[in-house]
Amino acid sequence: MSGRFVGRTLARSQALQLLFQAEANERGVLEVLDGDYALSDGPLDDYARRLALGADEARPDLDAVIVQRSTGWSLARLNAVDRNILRLALYEMLRVDDVDVAVTIDECVELAKAYGTDESSRFVNGILGRVADDVEAGVDVVAAAREEARRRAEKKRRAEEAAAAEAEAASAEESAEAPAEAE
Question: The domain spanning residue 146 has which CATH number?
Fold first, then answer.
């Protein structure tokens, strides 16, 4: 990729590389920056640092938005490049006021074409487009994603409780039948 990106496009590429390295090494971006890290083009741009650190700090909220929007896909099922492009783009869309949302989407679709799979650019564009539509309509996408995650967790908790109650009832039934069979 050397020489392909310049300006803020290069900064986004560098931020993506930092996010990817942090996730791959199960570390925070700050830890990556404090150690040895690799960039396809250097030196590290200040805007790249800002994006990577910001996206890393906001990761739980960004991941909630990603999970909510990628219907039928868990976060772990997404490929790491797509996941980190989405984090980067969502951070820029939701938290950086001086960049137009359409620019962020276009730039991150280009990153998906450069670093992702054949399907990455369409996937990234679709997720970001839906988020952009909601933001434009006045939806607090982070709050909506948090609420969706809370509902999902509550539903899972109730299902686990029901399964545990069924297992307990079956165990009690087996225990009640066992002495009768022994006689």
Answer: 1.10.940.10
